[in-house]
Amino acid sequence: MISEPDLEFVEETWFPALAPLHDHWFRVELHGGDRIPADGPTMIVANHSGNLPVDAIMTQLSLHRESGRLLRLLAGDVAFSLPVVSDLATKVGAVRADRDAAAALLEAGEMVGVFPEGYRGLGKPYTQRYQLQAFGRGGFAATALRHGATIVPVSIVGAEEIYPQLGAVFRGSALLGAEGMKTSNIGHAEGAAPVDEALESLVWGIADVLAEGATTPLKDLPAWALGPEGAAERKALIELVRDVVLSIARGLGIPYIPTTPFFPWLGVVGAVPLPSKWRIDVLDPINPREWAEGYRGGLMEAPEPGAGGDSAPIRLHDDPVSVLGLADEVKRRIQARLLRTLRDRTSAFY
């Protein structure tokens, strides 16, 4: 059973709270909003980036203003692992990202927000900005074909710059645990420091700040912060912090902990998103069944007269040619729009 959103909370609290961020911090511009269907099952498919799903909630507000429809976001497990975040996500209409939930919403004629890149897009390094990651196995395309939902591709430019990811303290290692981290190279992104080095740098950075502001001589600082005699204490502290971080990540299902120019070095201040200029483009809607039939017909040879064969109608949502072809087409359209927008913009922060 899918929980219904609290529409009064959405209209009177959620969207008004997001408005300053949308209008004055990111200065979001929506183009092509008239292409959003007025009703019926609709699947909004967009690129994903920015380390935190800020792009999803900004898109939810933009599309609601234009169409009056609430975008029911398909969210990852992390959103439902945190008590406060889980309650908020449910109130604003988000549901756990799975095929059954999407099917139920589409059968009810809802507008569903899908970000097929998932964590691969959300957490990609800044060097890969605006390069679309894999769209999974085409599950969104199969779901749209099965339920006759209109697919509306959407491109989002600006979200890549809010938290430029330089690397990650760990990536994909929550399942390995602390001991697994010591023997596996999967625990850190390319070009990023291993967990030990990253946390040691963080600990020493804190110690440096304390030392610079201390009124006592450096030689009087605690042994753990200075000198070779504190090596054992420092190592123990680093091991403790690392194990705590990984334990929390495993429990919450967090796939990575990013490092940006400001986070985690500046703490909470480093989590403030940069004020990039956003543009959201709604592209031409796609009737998935019509598109898939035409695409499949162009690839498959028609049987010779009298050749017989199976005359049963093709179940397009079970046909790999149709599903993967449709998913690739949606991805191609979004990528092309991203590149055109990037070519025309003068600055990420103009």
Automatic annotation (TrEMBL):
Keywords: Acyltransferase, Transferase. GO terms for molecular function: acyltransferase activity. InterPro entries: P_lipid/glycerol_AcTrfase_prd, Plipid/glycerol_acylTrfase. SMART domains: PlsC. Residues 42-159 form the Phospholipid/glycerol acyltransferase domain. PANTHER family: MONOACYLGLYCEROL_DIACYLGLYCEROL O-ACYLTRANSFERASE (PTHR22753:SF14), TRANSMEMBRANE PROTEIN 68 (PTHR22753). This is 1-acyl-sn-glycerol-3-phosphate acyltransferase.
